[in-house]
Design a protein that fits this description.
By secondary structure, the chain is of the alpha+beta class. The chain has a single domain, classed as 4-Layer Sandwich (L-amino peptidase D-ALA esterase/amidase), CATH 3.60.70.12. The strands form four sheets. Strands 1, 2, 3, 4, 7, 10, 11, 14 and 16 form a nine-stranded mixed beta sheet that branches. The chain has a three-stranded antiparallel beta sheet with strand order 13-12-15. α1 crosses α2 and α4 crosses α5. It is globular and about 60 Å long.
């Protein structure tokens, strides 16, 4: 994702199978937010909602570690404070940082979680050039298709995309850690998700399984059927178009279409699915065109995340199964 005014950095803990991804917008960016999943956990979300006194944020972060990972936001604030970045209050500058977490404690070492030091390190690596993708940063321990348990799941990760239309730029970043499968909307085929067995190489199709269970009028079987809060797909859309906070929130809501297109199922009680938006520029853009570009960019990001993610901690990616 390449949008003027935004730098992206990762910190990765391979042994712990966790990490953090930070998007720095030190010049300030109007931020919007839309939450659809039933298991979300966020730091300072009100700065991305209408009515808040502060108009712009200086960073958004995505972290593993479940709610423990929210503490990593302090490292982002420390980095920005040292650079003199923040909202002016009584002679001080307070960095405005918001972020969200995903659940990856079932992968790798659950005692190793993103912290302030890891977040600070991610900030120091932030670059405006193309960011690393796959099993890095917040996507290190990400997985998809967990209805039958983690042993039958597949690897998720980080994906990015940027679209251009004249001077207008729309970029997206997704951290895919879905409860459900990932589907390619262009073909309708499943790309990654729950497999037929431990070590299996055939996808079952979670939604089809749920429909069959419903038609048989019985409770769906599988350890994932009664668990919640162990997934989450995090999305962010950024643009150089000028947006108010209300417009940014509307763009975030429209961008959720990408999750509905690609995740099967999406927005469940077992997910913390959400989308942030960032506006860094002054370019005037048509709202409908901007929404269409945002949905496409986030769709591509989700598909890239599972297409290039490498297997980790016994969870295979598509390439590990010889599918690419």
């Amino acid at each position: 994702m390449q949008i003027p005014g935004i730098r992206i950095g990762h910190a990765t803990d391979v042994k712990g199978a966790t990490g953090i991804t930070v998007l720095l917008c030190e010049g300030g960016a109007v931020c919007g937010l839309d939450v659809r999943g039933g298991g979300s956990s966020l730091r300072n979300p009100t700065v991305a909602l209408p009515g808040h006194r502060v108009e712009k944020v200086h960073a958004v972060f995505f972290a593993g570690g479940s709610s423990y990972g929210l503490d990593a936001g302090g490292g982002v604030m420390r980095y920005l404070e040292r650079r003199g970045i923040g909202f002016p209050v009584r002679g001080l500058k307070v960095p405005i940082v918001t972020g969200a977490i995903l659940f990856d404690l079932g992968v790798g070492n659950s005692r190793r979680r993103p912290d302030e030091a890891m977040a600070f390190r991610a900030c120091t690596t932030a670059r405006a050039a193309s960011a690393a993708e796959g099993s890095v940063g917040a996507g290190t321990g990400a997985s998809v298709g967990k209805y039958f348990g983690i042993r039958r799941a597949m690897k998720g990760g980080v994906g990015t995309a940027t679209l251009r239309c004249g001077s207008l730029r729309v970029g997206a970043l997704a951290v895919v850690n879905a409860f459900g499968d990932v589907r390619d909307p262009a073909t309708g085929g499943l790309l990654a998700g729950a497999r037929n067995s431990d070590g299996g190489s055939r996808l079952v199709g979670i939604e089809a399984h749920l429909r069959r269970a419903a038609s048989n009028r019985r409770r769906p079987r599988g350890p994932g059927g009664s668990r919640g809060g162990d997934s989450t797909t995090l999305g962010l859309v950024a643009t150089n178009a000028a947006l108010t906070r209300e417009q940014a929130c509307r763009l975030a809501a429209a961008s959720q279409v990408a999750l509905a297109r690609c995740l099967s199922p999406a927005h469940t009680a077992n997910d913390g699915d959400l989308v942030y938006t960032l506006s860094t520029g002054k370019l005037q853009a048509d709202t409908l065109e901007l929404e269409a570009l945002a949905v496409e960019a986030l769709t591509r990001s989700i598909l890239r995340a599972v297409s290039i993610a490498k297997g980790l901690a016994g969870i295979p990616g598509r390439r590990d199964l010889g599918w690419d």
